[in-house]
Amino acid sequence: MSAESRRGRVVVGLTGGPGAAFGVRLLEVLAALPVETHLVMCRCASRAIARETGRAPEQIRALADRVYAERNQAARISSGSFLTLGMAIAPCSASSLASIGLGLATNLVHRAADVTIKEGRPLVLVVPGDGLGPLRDDALRRLARTPRVALVRPRGARPEEVDAAVREVVELLGVGA
Questions:
Q1: Fold of domain 6-172
Q2: More confident residue, 8 or 6
Q3: pTM summary value
Q4: CA pair distance 167, 25, nearest whole angstrom
Q5: Is the backbone peptide bond immediately before 91 cis, with ω within 30 degrees of 0?
Q6: 3-state secondary structure (DSSP) of residue 157
Q7: Residues 6+ apart with CB under 8 A from 86
Q8: Average pLDDT over every residue of 135-161
Q9: How many CA atoms lie within 13 A of 41 on its CB side?
Q10: Any idea where the domains of the chain sit in the sequence?
């Protein structure tokens, strides 16, 4: 399906930390839906994708309709006037969780998340695992109280757990088939 025939835009951020399969699978699912995907893949996510999935980051970038550099804070997705259906960050690293929770736009993923929150659009954060520690748990609680922010907390990374988490993300964004 061409980007021109799609009915909305979704921003996807891939940050570091464990759980690269969540972001990869999300992009695969979104590619089959009537949405235009705008991807920001952090450098640490590129390394995690190669290490955890055995796939080249270029293969994953090819799943998106548009790709932006992590440091390009002037990108279209950093503006509230760029209309989207919402944003998902999968996986959302601990440092991204903290930055977003504090409103620190240190890269394009964080800036786009900040804009998504400001504009009242859905922001879905996939935070794999548990036992993040008290400071990260505090960031999770702060974000959980933010309107239109949803946290998806998969407990494992088996294929069925990845698929279940991705289904939840798609539902929360309202872009399901």
A1: Rossmann fold (3.40.50)
A2: 8
A3: 0.93
A4: 10
A5: yes
A6: coil
A7: 10, 11, 116, 121, 122, 123, 124, 148, 172, 173, 174
A8: 87
A9: 24
A10: 6-172
